[in-house]
Write a structure and sequence with these properties.
Immunoglobulin-like, 12 strands, 169 residues, 8-stranded mixed sheet, two-stranded antiparallel sheet, elongated
Length: 169
């Protein structure tokens, strides 16, 4: 997932164990298209796909572990393949989504006894998914510049604000 999500966590009990999770939910019920140098809603969204949750690989860990550093979600994988069996988060292309982060008090991922759960989302993080570049000024230069879309986006990240970024599968 580009750009990757990183969060800082505070206010946990340093000695308790916690799971840190992420999911991605639709922002609205529209489908989008890039036209006239902007994203426009052009129709109704496709039916919502089953939700998948990404469990941070450090889970479960102590509160002091989570509060001691930024928590990176750089390993999250997105796909538009509805038959995915790898556990990737499945999203529709050209739809708007919002990452959500969850902190759950639990000593084991498979425990039936989870404690309290806090969920967070941030107004800066909605994005539109794309499977191909939607900007003609970007598309022709991409194959010459870089071999993979995520590499080219890394280069472009300095030029784009987060509100204009798109996540690529």
């Amino acid at each position: 997932m580009f750009p990757q999500c990183k969060v800082s966590i505070s206010g946990l009990d340093p000695g308790s164990k916690y799971l840190v999770l992420m999911d991605v939910v639709p922002v609205d019920s529209s489908r989008y298209r890039w036209q006239s140098d902007r994203w426009d809603a052009v129709g109704k969204a496709e039916p919502r796909l089953p939700d998948r949750i990404y469990i941070h690989p450090d889970s479960p860990a102590s509160g002091s572990h989570w509060m001691g550093r930024s928590v990176s979600f750089h390993r999250v994988k997105l796909t538009n393949n509805t038959l995915d069996s790898q556990g990737h988060i499945i999203l529709h292309s050209l739809h708007r989504y919002q990452p959500r982060f969850h902190v759950v008090q639990a000593s084991d991922v498979y425990s039936r006894r989870w404690g309290g759960c806090s969920s967070f989302s941030f107004p800066e993080t909605p994005f539109i998914t794309v499977t191909a570049y939607q900007n003609e000024r970007v598309s022709p230069s991409r194959p010459v510049t870089m071999h993979y879309p995520f590499s080219f986006c890394t280069y472009l990240s300095m030029l784009l604000t987060l509100s204009h970024c798109c996540f690529l599968f």
